[in-house]
Design a protein that fits this description.
Chain A starts with 20 loop residues before the first helix and ends in a 7-residue tail after the last helix. In chain A, helix 6 links the parallel strand 6 and strand 7. In chain A, about 35% of the residues lie in helices and about 15% in strands. Chain A has ten helices and nine strands. In chain A, the strands form two sheets. Chain A has a seven-stranded mixed β-sheet, sandwiched between helices. Chain A has a two-stranded antiparallel sheet with strand order 1-2. Chain A is α/β, with parallel strands linked by helices and about 300 residues long. Chain B is α/β, with parallel strands linked by helices and about 260 residues long. Chain B has a single domain, classed as Alpha-Beta Complex (2-enoyl-CoA Hydratase, Chain A, domain 1). In chain B, strands 1, 2, 3, 4, 5, 6, 7 and 8 form an eight-stranded mixed β-sheet that branches. In chain B, helix 2 packs across helix 11 and helix 8 crosses helix 9. Classes of the chains: A alpha/beta (about 300), B alpha/beta (about 260). Chains A and B meet through helix 5, helix 6, helix 7 and helix 8 of A and helix 5, helix 6, helix 7, helix 8 and helix 12 of B.
Amino acid sequence: MRTNPFSKKHYATTNIYRPQPQDHQQPEEERPNVPQGIMTKCPKCGKVIYSKILLKNHKRCDECGFHFKVSANERFAMILDDGEWQEFDSQMTTRDPLNFPGYGDKLVKTQTLTGLVDGVVTGKGKISGLPVMLAVMDAAFFMGSMGSAIGEKLARLFERATKERLPIIIFTASGGARMQEGIFSLMQMAKVSAAAAKHSEAGLLYITVLTDPTTGGVTASFAMLGDIIIAEPDALIGFAGPRVIAQTIGQKLPEGFQKAEFLLEHGFVDRIVPRDQLKQTLGTLIKVHSEWRQS
Amino acid sequence: MSLTPWEKVKLARMPVRPTGLDYIDRIFDNFLELHGDRYFGDDHAIVGGVAFLGDIPITVIAQQKGRNTKENIDRNFSMPHPEGYRKALRLMKQAEKFHRPIVCFIDTPGAFCGLGAEERGQGEAIASNLAEMMLLKTPVISFVISEGGSGGALALGVADKVYMLEHSIYAILSPEGFASILYKDSTKAEQAAIDMKLTAQDLLQFGIIDGIIPEPKGGAHNDYDQMAVNIKAVLTEDLQLMLQMDTEVLLDKRYQKFRKM
């Protein structure tokens, strides 16, 4: 008799030893007594690193090169000369334009939790002695989703840069649109792109640094408008999220799809720059574009 | 006639609802379709070309849905790939060069999400349209005729005037997608449609759009000709004003319009 190929149980069951969670746990009294936050474990290679040293290494694992997430304030300190800058619009937040159920409460909670007012910090400082406008998105705030506060702060920064004839650098990190702001979130794409276009028309330099993750409306607007587009190694960059695409096409995505290296290969990124070389690279680019012909 | 937001979503998606080409046929004369983005291919989800509105030469671009499954597969359900947006931009730059006004018909659930679209830079294609449209030295008028979804719709929507048909919708994404992200339950789309505020009436109140074009009784599908007449009336009036406007004033107004949002 032939077996029915559609009947279930066409698999073998073996008794492989699988480590149980408690196997790794040491008895309470034998655990080393390390206060929270002093050490950080690399999620890629597992190396345990002194948090202070990790910060000194630009939050990059010295063993495997893994790039840890960086907060907006940490990034400002890493990139600008002497870690000094003048912040703009630091108290600006959204006005909840749709009056969306529960959004107001969630905003306050997130602000308390992260110490941020909204998802981007903007300011002015110096790199290699040259003045520059800088914006850094922080993925810790609503996953870096773009709402009207982010759009307004960035548009203002572009206008300020155009007026003062300065280059602008934006570090992007975004899960996409701030859903709770609906159509207003969408319109920020047009608003920021418009301000970027005016800055570009004035002959000024705009650099984007794409960090993990940069997706959705941010990718489909100012992230891709830089004169020069830099990406951090291994960063996820795309329009649609990988989960949405996998769902649409009904199959697994190829290895490395939508990673920084994939975008470099397909011609959408100028350079992938590891974090320890970032400040130096940005400094060189700004020097190359300084207005020497007019002086 | 007062419809709920969810009823409007369903009406906007009806297969019998007039599409971009239906309006192009009725509003313009001598439409000549022009194909291709000059880089990769010709995206059938977007049609574009030149035509006359009365005696005014114009460039018209439309996201195009199919009437049945076969047509929809050819049109990719009006979900453009990057080459669609690049074709649109090519035709818009051409219009600018020859001082022709641009008319866009927006009708898409969203830009296509797939492997090829990502490989060929969907994000870059949309971003370029947003920035370039802001600087076009010629009038641009966009109409959301049925569904305006996400950046895929906005990529034809950076215009001097943006109108919506009475029962059309315009949103950050589909109510189903919205519900599955925010409510973790895609069956709550009806509630999402309310919370998202995606109707033409909501958007006019927010100042996101410039006006609403009334639809024939029961919806645009009941009288294609009348709907086309209604659109044409607004278009003709606006273009007459805009063509007299100084380009610098036009561009400044376009910038300020989006800057305020």
